[in-house]
Amino acid sequence: MIDAIAFEFQTGTQPVHLPEKYGNWRGVYNRLRMWAVDGTWERVFTALVAQADADEDLDRAVSVDSTIVRARQHTAGARKELGRSAPASPPTMHSDASEPA
């Protein structure tokens, strides 16, 4: 189970794409989720850090970020294809403009 979860994180694959040697992907997914909810991963990490600290082997900072932000290619500055640009917006009417008398 641990190997399957490690493989998933190392490769960035989704549970449904795990190799068959790890067994049923639903079991891996459910166990990972259950351990996250019940605090198992926090306890494991805390114990590992405590052991490294006791061994005076803690000489680096560890940062784990599980967020992924994706933007459309146009948001990143990619060129749009010709003829596929957004429709022109209607003219803007300013509310403070006075109308001719």
From TrEMBL:
<dbReference type="InterPro" id="IPR025161">
    <property type="entry name" value="IS402-like_dom"/>
</dbReference>
<dbReference type="Pfam" id="PF13340">
    <property type="entry name" value="DUF4096"/>
</dbReference>
<feature type="region of interest" description="Disordered">
    <location>
        <begin position="73"/>
        <end position="101"/>
    </location>
</feature>
<protein>
    <submittedName>
        <fullName>Transposase</fullName>
    </submittedName>
</protein>
<feature type="domain" description="Insertion element IS402-like">
    <location>
        <begin position="1"/>
        <end position="45"/>
    </location>
</feature>
<dbReference type="InterPro" id="IPR052909">
    <property type="entry name" value="Transposase_6_like"/>
</dbReference>
